[in-house]
Amino acid sequence: MDTERLKGKNVLITGAGRGMGAANAEHFAAQGANVCLGDIDEGAAQETAERINAKGNGRAIAVRMDVTEREDNRAAVEATVSEFGMINVGVFNAGLNKPRFFMDIDEDNWDLIMNVNTKAMWLGMQETARQMIAQGKQDYPYKLINVGSIASRKPLVDVTVYCTSKYGCLALTHCGAVALSEHNITVNGYAPGVVVTPLWEQLDKDLVDIGFKQKEGQAYEDIVRDALQIKRVSYPDDVIGTAAFLCSSDSDYMTGQMIHIDGGWCIQ
Ligand SMILES: NC(=O)c1ccc[n+]([C@@H]2O[C@H](COP(=O)([O-])OP(=O)(O)OC[C@H]3O[C@@H](n4cnc5c(N)ncnc54)[C@H](O)[C@@H]3O)[C@@H](O)[C@H]2O)c1
Question: Please, what is the angle between helix 160-180 and helix 120-135, to 10°?
Answer without folding.
Answer: 20
